[in-house]
């Protein structure tokens, strides 16, 4: 009862803010910038890449200080992320929320600073596979953070949002869309909160995953070029999975009384490697088709002429250190490779992609299998190399899947060698490796050369420190209670 009363007070506060603040919204194509990389470009290089490509909106998954500092003065609209692991302390402690806002919003929201538009409270916290682990923390964390933003005088400028996976709702046809039964109450609270503050509902939609996970899924329905398997839903006909999924959400929101709520696509894209249907041509066809479709303002059958407010492509760069539990394709979503080079021709609405400039590379040399040595004892060396480096391109359906046994070994050796900044000892492998100055790349299988303006790991130590400090703070706070 106390919590419900507190929520009502917050909603009244938000309604006052929404009345006072008029926000002019322009739809645009943004990108997700993830940093779980083995070869990480410097944030300054990435910001220059965004500016050169006229990308005006970027979504982050944390509040890495090095990234936010690089965004200072760029004018790029930023969505800062709060990892799911931080929701528990933020939901129970107003002091923890004040600390987070002070360190990650107030510090940067100064004149000529970072243009923070949204704070993403968690990332897909209602995902089915989490088994409810985070969902009870989401709304309380938002309430505390909203109070903290109000104290800092940013409540009208910075909107709290929650990126949701499309598995939060379900239906056989779009018009019957509804949120999962166990989420009905919390979704009602969430969308009430969002509506009161004038914030959009953010959803991540992945037709690729529908195709990847279902052998009966019509491949042409995943794209935007028409299909021989349209979904007929009463008077409405759906020719692509994106529109069908989006209208399922519209129907689910309508059932809660919020059918007109603005929607932002937080993540959408197509990987280029690591699976049979993940390749350059498919990625280009999907992403260009998506961009053209959204920018045409056609909308969907349930929202004709009203496309999503914004869409954030997933993702800007490949992330070679991501978990491959969902599939080997997880490390290959970038429209740019790890070194900021465009993978394929793509027009975001303002011209074709431009490569990153002034990228510093290691010398042009590679580590390969020594052709004079017997490779019968190479298995353990191969496993070691691929444990630390990214070898997912060698997987079935990958771009390096058919380069032969020696090619596989060379690819693994080189990936490890580049990760170790070409340390000569990292190419020994008990005499089975050798350094070459001839590029061993074959066809579409690219043997990489590392970058010099990178960090050895893409994980943010500063971000981890923030998580740990809040968790420790939370534990101490709970101990005192």
From TrEMBL:
It is found in: Cell membrane. InterPro entries: GH (IPR017853), Glyco_hydro_17 (IPR000490), Glyco_hydro_17_plant (IPR044965), X8 (IPR012946). It is a lipid-anchor; GPI-anchor. Belongs to the glycosyl hydrolase 17 family. Its EC number is 3.2.1.39. It comes from the Eukaryota. One of its GO terms (biological process) is defense response. It holds the Pfam family X8. GO terms for cellular component: plasma membrane; side of membrane. This is glucan endo-1,3-beta-D-glucosidase. SUPFAM superfamilies: (Trans)glycosidases. It is an enzyme of class 3 (hydrolase). The keyword Coiled coil does not apply. It catalyses: Hydrolysis of (1->3)-beta-D-glucosidic linkages in (1->3)-beta-D-glucans. Residues 365-447 form the X8 domain. It comes from Handroanthus impetiginosus. GO terms for molecular function: glucan endo-1,3-beta-D-glucosidase activity. Keywords: Cell membrane, Disulfide bond, Glycoprotein, Glycosidase, GPI-anchor, Hydrolase, Lipoprotein, Membrane, Plant defense, Signal.
């Amino acid at each position: 009862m106390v919590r419900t009363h507190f929520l009502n007070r917050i909603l009244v506060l938000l309604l006052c803010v929404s009345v006072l603040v008029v926000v002019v919204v322009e739809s645009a194509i943004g990108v997700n910038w993830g940093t779980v990389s083995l070869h990480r470009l410097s944030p300054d290089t990435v910001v220059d890449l965004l500016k050169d490509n006229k990308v005006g909106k970027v979504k982050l998954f944390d509040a890495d200080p090095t990234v936010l500092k690089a965004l200072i003065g760029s004018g790029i609209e930023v969505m800062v992320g709060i990892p799911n692991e931080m929701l528990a302390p933020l939901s129970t402690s107003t002091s923890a929320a004040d600390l987070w806002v002070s360190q990650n919003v107030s510090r940067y929201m100064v004149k000529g600073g970072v243009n923070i538009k949204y704070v993403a409270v968690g990332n897909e916290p209602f995902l089915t596979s989490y088994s409810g682990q985070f969902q009870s923390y989401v709304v309380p964390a938002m309430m505390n953070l909203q109070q903290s933003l109000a104290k800092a005088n940013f409540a009208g400028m910075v909107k709290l949002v929650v990126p949701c996976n499309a598995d939060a709702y379900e239906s056989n046809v779009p018009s019957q869309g509804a949120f999962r039964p166990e989420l009905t109450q919390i979704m009602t609270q969430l969308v009430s909160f969002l509506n009161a503050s004038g914030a959009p509902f953010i959803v991540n939609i992945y037709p690729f995953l529908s195709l990847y996970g279902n052998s009966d899924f019509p491949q042409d329905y995943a794209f935007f070029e028409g299909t021989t398997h349209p979904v007929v839903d009463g008077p409405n006909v759906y020719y692509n999975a994106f529109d069908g999924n989006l209208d399922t959400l519209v129907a689910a929101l309508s059932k809660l009384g919020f059918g007109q709520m603005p929607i932002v696509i937080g993540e959408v894209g197509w990987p280029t490697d690591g699976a049979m249907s993940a390749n350059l041509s498919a990625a280009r066809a999907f992403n260009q088709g998506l961009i053209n479709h959204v920018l045409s303002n056609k909308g969907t059958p349930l929202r004709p002429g009203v496309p999503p407010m914004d869409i954030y492509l997933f993702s800007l760069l490949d992330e070679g250190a991501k978990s491959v539990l969902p599939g080997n394709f997880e490390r290959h979503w970038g429209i740019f490779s790890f070194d900021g080079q465009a993978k394929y021709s793509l027009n975001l609405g303002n011209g074709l992609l431009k490569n990153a400039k002034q990228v510093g590379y290691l010398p042009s040399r590679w580590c390969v299998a020594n052709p004079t040595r017997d490779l019968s004892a190479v298995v353990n060396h191969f496993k070691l190399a691929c444990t630390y480096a990214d070898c997912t391109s060698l997987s079935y359906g990958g771009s390096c899947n058919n380069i032969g046994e020696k090619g596989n070994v060379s690819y693994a050796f080189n990936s490890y060698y580049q990760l170790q900044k070409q340390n000569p000892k990292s190419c020994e492998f008990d005499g089975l490796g050798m350094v070459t100055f001839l590029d061993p790349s074959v066809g579409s299988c690219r043997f990489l050369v590392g970058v010099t303006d990178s960090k050895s790991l893409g994980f943010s130590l500063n971000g981890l420190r923030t998580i740990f400090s809040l968790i420790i703070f939370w534990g101490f706070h709970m101990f005192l209670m």
